[in-house]
Fold:
Amino acid sequence: MVIRAPGVYRPQRDTWLLVRALRLAPVPPGARVLDVCSGTGVLALAAAREGAGSVTAVDISRRAVLTARANAALHRVPLRVLRGDLLEPVAGESFDVIVANPPYVAWRSRARVRPSRAWCGGADGRLVLDRLCAAAPRCLSPGGILLVVHPAWCGVGRTLGLLRGAGMKAAVVDRCLEPFGPIMRALAPVLCDRGLIDAGQRTEELVVIHAARPLRP
Ligand SMILES: C[S@@+](CC[C@H](N)C(=O)[O-])C[C@H]1O[C@@H](n2cnc3c(N)ncnc32)[C@H](O)[C@@H]1O
Structure:
């Protein structure tokens, strides 16, 4: 149970897929974990529960940062919660596990919903995701892992390609079919025009990607 300030992303199916992925990974005892794009901090709390030695959460939204700090206090978990853009607040540090549920919903100006940083991933949904794929491998310790979730229509091949291109061993480890929520229903015509989803499509497949940095280069 977490509290949530208005405008902060409500934990949902993509969040719960990553909670399960953290459990299955598993988180090595004492691991240094980074939850980037942390929202309420629910994934950071899950990592602490799974035996992490230290957990850092990063979000660009002030409200999300305050919410995650409140949730850490509520659950009496010593999270370090930082505000900033992706991995910038932890530049120079390395982590054994990075978990990320980035904003990935594609948005166009003629869409009938206003964009929110909580879910908007730019014109094709990959604005934050591509930057994450480029930056995360450099912040992982040897043998460290990245767990990231996004819908299949965002381009699973592209995510795998970017991570493999950075020397990571990457694969899809979990997936599920999810009915569109209100935002995806409102955006469906725009996404269909862009060729990202099919006409009449009302569900999306969410995928969890596991990428491991080799122990030796
Ligand atoms: C889809 S929500 C995920 C929240 C939470 N991790 C969860 O799974 O419930 C994405 C989060 O990314 C944050 N965000 C968006 N752009 C960001 C950026 N450039 N750097 C850090 N956080 C960002 C948003 O504020 C939002 O809290």
